[in-house]
Hints:
Layout: E1 2-6, H1 8-14, E2 23-27, H2 31-36, E3 40-41, E4 48-50, E5 57-60, E6 63-66, E7 74-77, H3 84-89, E8 99-100, E9 106-107, H4 112-117, E10 120-122, H5 127-130, E11 147-149
Parallel strand pairs: 2-5, 10-11
Antiparallel strand pairs: 1-2, 1-8, 3-4, 4-5, 6-7, 8-9
Amino acid sequence: MEIYLVGGAVRDQLLGLPVKDRDWVVVGATAERLLSKGYQQVGKDFPVFLNPNTKEEYALARTERKSGKGYTGFICDFSPNITLEQDLIRRDLTINAMAIDDQGNLHDPYHGKSDLDNRILRHISPAFAEDPLRVYALPALPLVSIILILK
C-alpha cells in the first residue's frame, strides 16, 4: 500500500503557497484493508475514507470511463492494481496530475512541474469535455498569467 499527496495541494506547495486542502490517493489497497487499519469509510458508494489520526480524506486510486451524460455518468474501477499514473491521468491538467510520496519525492509523469514553472495550463484528459463544469475552477488557480494549451 502506497499513499500519495496529490492534486492542488502538490501544485500549491510547489508554488510556495499555503496548502488549504490535502487530497490523498492510496495505491495498491482495497477498502477492506483501509478499514482494517482504522480508516472510516465516508460514503457507501465511493471508496473515500477518513484517516483515523488526521481525519483527512483518502481515496483509493481509480480509473474512470464516461458512461453517460453530465458529471455523474462515470464507471469507476478501484482495483488495487490501478497505478499512480493511471489515477493521475484522469485529472484535468498536468499541474494537478502530480503526487508526492511519503519520502517527499515528486512523481510527475505528465510534466506538470515544467508546465507550472512556465505558467502553462495543459489538459491531459477529456475531463473538460466529460465534465464542462470543471472550466469554472480555472480562474481560482493561483497563477499570475497562463497559456492554455488544448490538443
